[in-house]
């Protein structure tokens, strides 16, 4: 019930913020897309919004901040059309919610493990405190895989779920934690203060972190609308961090399977029940002919 109330409140706020712009253009009703945080994971979508790519195609895409649980409740009840989280929808798909990943923004993670001055290796994290956003989430699983690859037992490190990036940075600065999983480019600012970036997740793991997910009903009933959304994102130009963002919006099978494993999807669960690249390939092909 609280999740549904949150959805309605979020959409009401977005409506009042966007109604004036909608009334001045002959475009469709707002298409709401859930984003979990204000981060670089959905940068291609941000560029498309800022450059007016969607309005050129006759659609009005409006981002709404929602945590994963709220976003899943919203898309399941048709209160929102699109979400950018990938991990939690995969888990929900295995549980029976008919969703599909139809595009990928981040082919690799933008997270980085940053430690306080004096810590120069993963081995030195044994017995230390590491901050993450929330226990059981994608960032937590990323950290567990990093430690596993380094031969460190996960329980040898003390994990603290502190919420957003700003809280993690504050904890690092005041010495409450010894390291924190953060998002780039915060690592660059902290390095100037003497902190050290130990591991960039993109360098050790390949898996999509964010993209576009829709309900199967929408995929079946509104392919033209969806293709316009995908085309708008593909038309946006972004040159920095090309090793994170794919050009065609499609994840590799290896990356998708890794993302599924992080989402605790059984290894024998078919990938085609998690993702459908049909419309993003169609959008990409259309752009190539222009």
Please describe what this structure looks like:
This protein is an alpha/beta fold. The protein folds into 2 domains: 2-108 and 207-288, D-Maltodextrin-Binding Protein, domain 2, CATH 3.40.190.10; 111-204, D-Maltodextrin-Binding Protein, domain 2, CATH 3.40.190. Helix content is 42%, strand content 18%. It is built from 13 helices and 10 strands. It has helices at residues 2-23, 43-50, 53-56, 68-76, 87-94, 138-149, 165-174, 186-191, 201-204, 216-221, 223-235, 253-262, 278-288; strands at residues 30-35, 60-65, 82-85, 99-106, 111-115, 129-132, 158-161, 179-183, 196-200, 210-215. The strands form 2 sheets. It has a 5-stranded mixed sheet with strand order 2-1-3-10-4, sandwiched between helices. A 5-stranded mixed sheet has the order 7-6-8-5-9, with helices on both faces. β6, α6 and β7 (158-161) form a beta-alpha-beta unit. The chain is globular and about 55 Å long.
Strand proportion, as a percent range, falls in 15-25%
The succession of helices and strands, N to C, reads HEHHEHEHEEEHEHEHEHEHHHH
**CATH architect. name of the largest domain:** 3-Layer(aba) Sandwich
Q: Strand order within the widest sheet?
A: 2-1-3-10-4
Labels describing this entry:
alpha/beta; 290 residues; 2 domains; D-Maltodextrin-Binding Protein, domain 2; disordered N terminus
Short description:
By secondary structure, the chain is of the alpha/beta class. The chain has helices at residues 2-23, 43-50, 53-56, 68-76, 87-94, 138-149, 165-174, 186-191, 201-204, 216-221, 223-235, 253-262, 278-288; strands spanning 30-35, 60-65, 82-85, 99-106, 111-115, 129-132, 158-161, 179-183, 196-200, 210-215.
